[in-house]
Structure formats: structure tokens, C-alpha cells
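Q: I'm writing up a methods section and want to include an example of the input and output format. Could you take the sequence below and give the corresponding predicted C-alpha cells, formatted cleanly so I can copy it straight into the document?
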Amino acid sequence: MNEDDQLDAAFSALAHPARRAILARLAQGTASVKALAQPFEMSLPAVSKHIRVLESAGLITRERDAQFRLCRLETKPIQKISSWTEQYRHIWDARFDMMDTLLTDMKESDQ
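A: Here is the clean output for your methods example:
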């Protein structure tokens, strides 16, 4: 999988709030699939499907520890996403500054 395909897969995986929540939990340390499923109001197979999407995107890895399937966050793909988004930060900052100026001007003209 080339770098563009990896970014596409990662952004696609991050599009779902449950998958982002799973990654946030794994940022605290490894966890079993059952532990990851606990806060969600969905079936264990549904959570497992989300985990498979994250694994396919390279964002997590799974390993077997006795009877448990432990999931671990993979930081390298997250770093690639961060690097990719960082190159656009100056554009976003400039647009937010323009929006702030516009909103300030609008508030002042209403007073």
C-alpha cells in the first residue's frame, strides 16, 4: 500500500466517531476487544468490525494473549496524518484569522 493509499485508509477509518473513540481509548494503553466494546451501545461483532477497519488502515494492531485479543495503537500512521495536516495549518490559521476579523467587524457594526 503506497503512502496516499495509507492516508486514504486512515482518514476513512477516522470518519466514524466510534473508531475515533476506540483510538482515544487505545492512546491510554493496550486493551482487549471486550474492554473496547464496553462503553458502546452496540454488539461485540459491530465493535469488532470497527476494530478490523482500524487494523486494515494500520492504525492499530491486534495480538493474542492467552484467551484475550489485545489491541494496540500504532503511532506511525497517526504521525503521517499529523504531518500531512500540518502542511495546511498556515491556510487554516489565515482563514480563521480572516473569519475572526469579519465577526469582530460585524459585532462592532451592530453596536
